[in-house]
Amino acid sequence: MGGTLGVLRNDLRCSNARVMIGRLESVIYRLIIVPLVAFLPAPFPYGFAVLVGDLRYKLYKPFRKEIEYALEQVFGSQLSFEERSRIARDWFRLRSCEAIDMMRLVGNGRALTRLVKTRGLEHVEAALAAGRGAILCSAHFGSYRCCFSVLGALGFPAALITNWSYDDDRLSPVDRLFSRLIRSLPVTHHLRRPNIVRREGKIGVAIEASIVLRENELIATMLDHSDYGDPVAPKDRTRPVPMKFLNREALMLPWIITIAQLMDAPMLMTFMRRSADWRHQVLEISPPISLEGDAETAFQRCLATVEAAIRRNPAHWEKWNVNALVQLGMLSAEDRFQRSGESN
Amino acid sequence: MQSLIIAQISQMTKKPASTLKNDTLLLETGILDSLSLLKLVLFSEKQFGVSVPAEELVPDNFKTIDAMCVYLRSKQGK
């Protein structure tokens, strides 16, 4: 599912009227307010985004409850009710701040990059100096849509493996327009190549990724999914495998490890997290992760760093909703129906 | 070349070699996915001493065993 309207349809599992209000609010925020305030001195747009996040936290009660429910299901008594509420509030704040990030990527991107402190760029430089490219792995964490564009704006050649494409012809014209205006123009502007997406008639994600690596460029992808960026066609043999993740078993695809092993490319874990002042961020890139052992063992090693990042900053993980957790196999389908019944 | 490629595909996909015909559509029928195709390209480069440039990594060159052999032989000739 792509496009802003599609995201809203997913995100605001409420009545149609609420969805309409949510769409309108999101459109006004992203298309009118964000462009107006984003380039003011940083404390203003991010302070405003925090206020919008707080407003959304209050307005979208069913979705807030769903985040709290998902947190409770995963962390159980490890988080108190107050902690879950705070995380849900911060989740809304982070999403609102991300819209500002995207807008600040317009042009040369310096409006955003000067607010981002980078750590571990030497690992990327060393990988490129070795001539085999590198794979940057992240998760749906923090301002993940902007994370690799920040690297691109800093001059690193990055391409992204995703399940969406800004020019996806399966999107409705309206969704495609929103997608282009809101995401495509600022975000992909800094990426070296179009997103690598599985599509009929194309040679495949793994091959396209290998081309990028052979050109000594960077491939970026998210690990925390079970269905996309998948180089394997749905009818093929390879299926998601159960991995230990956040106190549960999650179904994931370790194909990126196989690509790294085949291409002898280093794999670097990459996370961008927001500071307590909401405007500054830290982009951290790890040294190469060991790819010893089979693909699943190495994947579990990478996943452990994702889990550690989420545990340190739970609100940064975008997937605190029942549908996403069901898709990952972390909750049962009954949970989805149960929540849907409670929301309505 | 054909028998080596068939053996390699058979080993990767666990399909009996006898079921793999020279004109079987490998990508369309899902016998080869993108990962196994990547493995096959790397195998061919090593085995037959060729280099497959990025612009030639297109479905037409790998859609069948016959197409693969024609393509790889053309690379060997260069």
Task: Reconstruct the topology from this structure.
The complex is a heterodimer of chains A (344) and B (78).
Chain A: H1 4-11, H2 16-37, H3 43-59, H4 61-75, H5 81-104, H6 110-113, E1 116-119, H7 121-130, E2 134-138, H8 144-153, E3 158-160, H9 173-188, H10 205-214, E4 218-222, E5 241-245, E6 248-252, H11 255-263, E7 267-274, E8 281-285, H12 295-312, H13 322-327, H14 333-343
Parallel strand pairs in A: 1-8, 2-4, 2-7, 3-4
Antiparallel strand pairs in A: 5-6, 7-8
Helix pairs in contact in A: 1-2, 3-5, 4-5, 5-9, 10-11, 11-12
Chain B: H1 2-13, H2 34-48, H3 59-62, H4 65-76
Give structural notes:
The complex is a heterodimer of chains A (344) and B (78). Chain A is of the alpha/beta class. Helix content of chain A is 52%, strand content 12%. Chain A has helices at 4-11, 16-37, 43-59, 61-75, 81-104, 110-113, 121-130, 144-153, 173-188, 205-214, 255-263, 295-312, 322-327, 333-343, and strands at residues 116-119, 134-138, 158-160, 218-222, 241-245, 248-252, 267-274, 281-285. In chain A, strands 1-8-7-2-4-3 form a six-stranded mixed sheet, sandwiched between helices. Chain A has a two-stranded antiparallel ribbon with strand order 5-6. The longest helix of chain A has 24 residues, at 81-104. The relative contact order of chain A is 0.16. Chain B has a single domain (2-10, 21-76), classed as ACP-like (Non-ribosomal Peptide Synthetase Peptidyl Carrier Protein, Chain A, Orthogonal Bundle). Helices cover 55% and strands 0% of the residues of chain B. Chain B has helices spanning 2-13, 34-48, 59-62, 65-76. In chain B, helix 1 (2-13) packs antiparallel against helix 2. In chain B, 26% of the residues are buried. The chains are: A alpha/beta (344), B mainly alpha (78). Chain A binds chain B through residues 198, 201-207, 210-211, 214-215, 231-233, 235-238, 255, 258-259, 262, and chain B through 13, 27, 30, 33-35, 37-39, 41-42, 54, 57-59, 62.
